[in-house]
């Protein structure tokens, strides 16, 4: 009994006449999860669990009816900004203003030159009536007056580029310029959205086309507000995406909810469109 115990402790075996030690591996007890750790992991697992997608729901995005990025149509220096981020603007309101003293001076000069040329033309016409000036002289004076008139129109057109005006009533969503900075032609300066009327953008399975038609009502549930809103199908794309077997549609909200903003998202519910919704 004592000899067998010694062999077990030393872990020595005899093989081919040689003594080789065999390592003894100590058993490690399995970790025991405490009730506290189980209580913590349960809510984390619930949070990480993806929400179950219902067969009659698709993701939806709220978008502005119109959106425009306004760029500089002339090179120059910004001397005035009349709207800040988030401010409301009306159609035609000047948002940015350039330093256009040079263009204004050129316009004034062209007007003075046109005024002088016009008087010369009138004088030549009177002399031609008294046969003291030739028809050629009258025509040359008229052409000179027309040249300065065209210059006036040119400088007036340049002055109209001295301000960036809102193309529609809406809200300023981004300003990419600061006062007294110089810009180049084509540089993006300000973004404006028309949020007076919102639209709904979504993709539905192409199998729903048999039941989803223009004018059909559906429900929109927005994540940010937790509320539901009524909407109608306004447009359906003319092409199905072959990869995803879905088609893009556009809807309009009934009314204009004050708590909705462009960029919010949620789900659109078509209870009568999904084939598996009633199973």
Short overview:
The protein has 279 residues and is an alpha+beta fold.
3D architecture notes:
With 279 residues, the chain is an alpha+beta fold. 28% of the residues lie in helices and 33% in strands. It contains 4 helices and 14 strands. The chain has helices at residues 2-10, 35-48, 101-129, 135-160; strands at residues 12-15, 18-21, 57-71, 76-81, 88-89, 94-98, 163-165, 170-175, 182-183, 188-205, 217-222, 228-236, 246-253, 265-269. The strands form 3 sheets. It has a 6-stranded antiparallel beta barrel. A 4-stranded antiparallel β-sheet has the order 7-6-4-9, with no helix packed on it. A hairpin with a 2-residue loop joins strand 1 and strand 2 (18-21). The chain starts with a helix and ends in a 10-residue tail after the last strand. Residues 1-19 and 36-51 have low confidence and may be disordered.
């Amino acid at each position: 009994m004592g000899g067998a115990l010694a062999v077990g402790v030393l872990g020595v075996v005899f093989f081919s006449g040689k003594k080789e030690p065999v390592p003894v591996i100590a058993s490690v007890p399995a970790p025991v999860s405490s009730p506290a750790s189980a209580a913590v992991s349960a809510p984390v697992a619930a949070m990480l669990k993806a929400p179950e997608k219902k067969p009659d729901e698709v993701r939806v995005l709220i978008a502005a009816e119109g959106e425009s990025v306004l760029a500089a149509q002339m090179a120059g220096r910004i001397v005035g900004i009349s709207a800040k981020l988030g401010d409301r603007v009306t159609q035609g309101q000047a948002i940015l203003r350039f330093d256009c003293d040079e263009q204004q001076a050129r316009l004034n000069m062209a007007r003075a030159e046109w005024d002088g040329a016009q008087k010369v033309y009138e004088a030549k016409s009177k002399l031609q009536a008294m046969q003291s000036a030739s028809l050629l002289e009258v025509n040359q004076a008229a052409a000179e007056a027309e040249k300065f008139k065209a210059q006036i129109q040119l400088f007036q057109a340049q002055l109209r580029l001295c301000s960036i005006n809102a193309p529609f009533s809406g809200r300023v969503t981004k300003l990419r310029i600061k006062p007294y900075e110089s810009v180049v032609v084509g540089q993006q300066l300000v973004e404006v959205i028309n949020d007076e009327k919102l639209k709904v953008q979504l993709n539905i399975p192409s199998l729903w086309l048999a039941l989803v038609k223009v004018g059909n009502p559906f429900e929109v549930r927005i994540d940010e507000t937790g509320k539901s809103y009524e909407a109608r199908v306004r447009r359906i794309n003319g092409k199905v995406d072959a990869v995803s077997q879905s088609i893009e549609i556009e809807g309009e909200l009934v009314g204009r909810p004050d708590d909705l903003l462009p960029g919010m998202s949620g789900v659109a519910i078509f209870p009568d469109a999904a084939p598996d919704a009633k199973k």
